[in-house]
Design a protein that fits this description.
The chain is of the alpha+beta class and about 100 residues long. Helices cover about 25% and strands about 50% of the residues. Strands 2-1-6-5-4-3 form a 6-stranded mixed sheet.
Length: about 100
């Protein structure tokens, strides 16, 4: 789906933070998948915007079985030649995000 030179950006200094290339981002996705399978992580899409050059999606992100650990995130997709080229994460409630992703 992504170009070979795609860029993935996650803010902060957590274990998943940084500017990742396509191969490096697979490690992040593996961790997210493990948390999802364990029932600790889920996202609910609450808003989206799409255009020819990209998209922005706003999520409520939940950790755990209740609403206690919840932060909001925006996932920005930037397209080049009709293909996703850059994916950026913007996080609200960063302190909670950092504590959950260590």
């Amino acid at each position: 789906l992504f170009d070979e030179d795609a860029i993935f950006v996650i803010p902060g200094t957590t274990s998943v933070s940084g500017d990742h290339d396509k191969a490096g981002f697979r490690t992040v996705l593996k961790r997210v998948t493990e948390m999802t399978k364990a029932g600790r992580h889920r996202q609910e899409l609450i808003c989206q915007y799409q255009s020819d050059s990209g998209a922005a999606l706003v999520f409520d992100t939940h950790f755990g079985p209740d609403e206690t650990d919840k932060y909001h995130s925006i996932h920005e997709w930037i397209f080049r030649d009709g293909r996703p080229h850059v994916w950026m994460l913007y996080v609200h409630e960063y302190d909670l995000f950092a504590s959950l992703w260590g």
